[in-house]
Specification:
The protein is mainly alpha-helical and 88 residues long. 27% of the residues lie in helices and 5% in strands. Strands 1-2 form a two-stranded antiparallel sheet. The longest helix is centred in the middle third of the chain and has 13 residues. 14% of the residues are buried.
C-alpha cells in the first residue's frame, strides 16, 4: 500500500498556498506525476507475494496512469469515505 508523490510538474506550479508548506519531495513526481508509480511498478514483483496485491493512491493523475499503462488491469475501488484515485 502506498500514497507516493503524484503531482506533475505543471500542477506543482498551480497548487494552492497551503500545499506550499509541504516538502516538495512529498508531492512532486516528474513531468506527468507518475515517476514514483513507475518506480513502484519496477520493484513491486520483488516485494509482493504471488497472491499479493498492490494498492496505490494516484489522486488526479488517474487519467495519466491509464494512458501510460493501457494494458494493466487496474481496479478502482469505491471508497466509502469519498475520494478517488486509488487503484489495485
Amino acid at each position: 500500500m502506498s500514497n507516493p508523490p503524484y503531482v506533475g510538474r505543471a500542477e506543482m506550479r498551480t497548487l494552492p498556498p497551503e500545499y506550499r508548506h509541504e516538502p516538495r519531495l512529498g508531492l512532486a513526481s516528474g513531468v506527468d506525476g507518475l515517476d514514483s508509480v513507475r518506480a513502484i511498478f519496477a520493484e513491486a514483483r520483488s516485494y509482493l507475494e504471488d497472491d499479493g496485491i498492490l494498492v496505490v493512491e494516484v489522486g488526479n493523475t488517474e487519467a495519466a496512469l491509464i494512458k501510460a499503462f493501457p494494458r494493466l488491469p487496474f481496479v478502482w475501488p469505491r471508497i466509502a469515505m469519498g475520494g478517488e484515485g486509488v487503484f489495485c
